[in-house]
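Good morning C.,

I know you're traveling, so I'll keep this short. The sequence:
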Amino acid sequence: MKAPRILGLVLARGGSKRLPGKNVRPLAGKPLVAWSIAAAKACPVIADVVVSTDDEAIAQVAREHGARVPFLRPPALAGDTSTSADAALHALDFLRDQEGAAYDAVLLLEPTSPLRASADLPGVASLLARRWDDTDAVVTVGRVQLEQPAVMKSMDADGRLAPWVDLGTGELPVAWFPYGVAYAVKTEALRRHRTFYPPRVLGYTIERWQNYEVDDLFDFLCVEAVMQHFKGRLP
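The tokens, ready to paste straight into the viewer:
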């Protein structure tokens, strides 16, 4: 098939209880959300870069950094229990109904995972295109380091520890975590399954330095340290 037409979508809601205002918080010289916008705009296979937000302050920052914000996301799709899939479908529906724009796939970038190598987004999109006939989605995954499920413990009310997962003896299995660097999903699969994890999903591996997501201040400080290490120019 011809190269799929891809929507680059950044979901950035205003509500954040653990780190208020995180999406516009300055990180290595520019707002957190701007790093995802810049990565999407630099990816040659992305046809359009749209930010979906319920917050006018985020919308203004997004426009200043070159993204389109053709709508404000309804509050019902911006709560703590709202899903990324529902927000993405809302964006697709709006762009189809109001602009007549159709996309074969959505490449989702979470602002809270700004540590992207330059090859990641083209690589994720290319993998989905190459495996179009037998794959519905591609998700970036990083190898779990210290917090491996096989070495985690549960603790009862008396404070006694027990294996979280009893795998017996032998070599520990490799565990992978879906860090939010990128999620690529075929539009048809997203509409049918309403998830970025449809039945046929492939993993795209990222590097150790990318295994961070900004949920609280300490995550932010870790990401900031990585940015400083690379002097704001990621590999």
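Safe travels,
E.
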